[in-house]
Amino acid sequence: MADDRTKIITQANIINRPLYFANLKVKYFYPDMPKLENKIGSNWIDLYTAEEESFLPGDFKLVPLGVGIILPEGCEAIIAMRSSTYKKYRITQTNGIGIIDNEYCGEEDQWKLPVKAERFVTIPAHTRLCQFRILTNQPVIMFDTVDHLKDDSRGGFGSTGN
Q: What are the catalytic residues?
């Protein structure tokens, strides 16, 4: 493990990126699941389908991702589709993004991806389908009511990039 960390620190220094470590406990629900890998320079970690999944047009399924993870206290995982997934398979994640809180870590709490198919498609087992990253939970927020915001306005909704 020390050699792996030295390698990671060296790579992180090369790309001039701050480095934080978290050791995550991962349960693989299937013995042949690809192991999770955190690639230096990437902000997301790929997740794989656990089994082959076939869809008819309009089908909804919770696709098993074959892992359960104990997340650090005060953190949550965000799951989003890979950019190529829709193009290859014509499926969409029904909840836009998935949020897994750190209490979803029981013996049977396998991560799954809710998807809906646009056409008939079969997705092979161990396909890189989506990805996740870990974020700290939102801080406690207080709201103060005001009569005015900043004087500078960007021009209203949808005004950037004009």
A: 101
